[in-house]
Design goal:
- The structure holds two protein chains of two kinds.
- Chain A is mainly β.
- In chain A, the strands form two sheets. In chain A, strands 2, 4, 5, 8, 9 and 10 form a six-stranded mixed sheet that branches.
- By secondary structure, chain B is an all-beta fold.
- In chain B, the strands form two sheets. In chain B, strands 2-10-9-4-5-6 form a six-stranded mixed sheet, with no helix packed on it. A four-stranded antiparallel sheet of chain B has the order 1-3-8-7, with no helix packed on it.
- Chain B is globular and about 40 Å long.
- Chain B starts with a strand and ends with a strand.
- Classes of the chains: A mainly beta, B mainly beta.
- At the A-B interface, strand 4, strand 8 and strand 9 of A face strand 5 of B.
């Protein structure tokens, strides 16, 4: 079982706000990063660190952490945001990395 | 455009070996930690291994420790993953990516299938 737990599926109405969560003990110490993956494509980093977006990522994507839960928020979800989303962070050992199981986001 | 291109995947029998390569272009490869991540068919992402900029540190997920070796050649802008004693559960798309904790640039992946 993964050290990071994500809900398998989440849905959101077009234009509404959605929060995708990632839970794990290591998140009380280390930040999570978030990746978007569309079918047949490599993952794309969307959030890293406290709440940083790589160049080219829309500002509707944001990240936050509370206790041992990290969240990715998409404010005003668009049809093109429909994808699988994965969190990752450092594991219990600190030098190892772990991914959450992924959340399939459906935009209705 | 910055780019990572993996190669070396294919069909291999259980117990066999395979060497994956990842060539970097249009960025300073030698200043980045590098990572291998894999994804089994229809499954999620799994961190496999990473290596420090100068190759002096490397870390592995427990399931591949002792079977896989990560290496790099900064003069050739290349990252490698030597895989041996392959098992069916190693079947996956293998991605190389830049970074130690967050992975910014990704390759397109190379498929490894372990089957008799």
């Amino acid at each position: 079982s993964s050290e990071l737990t994500q809900d398998p599926a989440v849905s959101v109405a077009l234009g509404q706000t959605v929060r995708i969560t990632c839970q794990g003990d290591s998140l009380s110490t280390y930040y999570a990063s978030w990746y978007q993956q569309k079918p047949g494509q490599a993952p794309l980093l969307v959030i890293y660190g406290k709440n940083n977006r790589p160049s080219g990522i829309p500002d509707r994507f944001s990240g936050s952490t509370s206790g041992n839960t990290a969240s990715l928020t998409i404010a005003g979800a668009q049809a093109e945001d429909e994808a699988d989303y994965y969190c990752n962070s450092r594991g219990r050992s600190g030098n190892h990395l772990v991914f959450g199981g992924g959340t399939k986001l459906t935009v209705l | 455009e910055v780019q990572l291109v993996e190669s070396g995947g294919g069909l291999v029998q259980p117990g066999g070996s395979l060497r994956l390569s990842c060539v970097a272009s249009r960025f300073t490869f030698s200043t980045y930690w590098m990572t291998w991540v894999r994804q089994a068919p229809g499954k999620g992402l799994e961190w496999v291994a990473n290596i420090k900029e100068d190759g002096s540190e490397e870390y592995y997920v427990d399931s591949v420790k002792g079977r896989f070796t990560i290496a790099r050649d900064n003069a050739k802008n290349s990252l490698y993953l030597q895989m041996s004693s392959l098992r069916a559960e190693d079947t996956a798309v293998y991605y190389c990516a830049t970074g130690r904790y967050a992975f910014d640039i990704w390759g397109q992946g190379t498929m490894v299938t372990v089957s008799s």
